[in-house]
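Researcher: I need the complex structure. Ligand is zinc ion. Inputs:
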Amino acid sequence: MIFFVHWSSSDVQYFKMESADMYCDECGSNQKHTYRMYEKKNKSYSVVTTSTDRSVTITCHGCLSESSIPKEQEKQLVERYQKEILVNQAIELYQQGEYSKALKKSKKAFKKDKNYVPAMMVSAQCLIALNKHNDAKKYVVELIKMYPDDEQVNHMREQIAQTCGF
Ligand SMILES: [Zn+2]
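Model: Output:
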């Protein structure tokens, strides 16, 4: 009998993060480039751990060549993109009405940066949707300080004004 044993597996996915115009050596001209973040999940069954390798590349829209970027810049982008991806996933979950799951995602984004404004916005909206107005208040208070004229922020304030009294 033959056993196929998978000792490890890995899944690679990538996210298109942002675009910028820059010079391409291959094309010899300015071209639009897209930043991609790759996430490679490594599962190892011999030990109970999973790890994720993250890397960032840029792809030229002219010649489609994909290149790596300097390590220091890559490190900074990985940090920023992780937060952005988490918040985007949180927004998607919010739109599907999965408020608790969305809140968990935004909490992960806060772990990377406790002052991350998009995570504050999503967290506040989730908490309002979950009727946890007092928990939402701390974010709304912060957001109003930063964006006193923002329509969305003021709408959130109105939503919790009666229960929280401000
Ligand atoms: Zn090119």
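Model: Summary of the prediction. Helices lie at 71-95, 99-112, 117-129, 133-146, 151-164.
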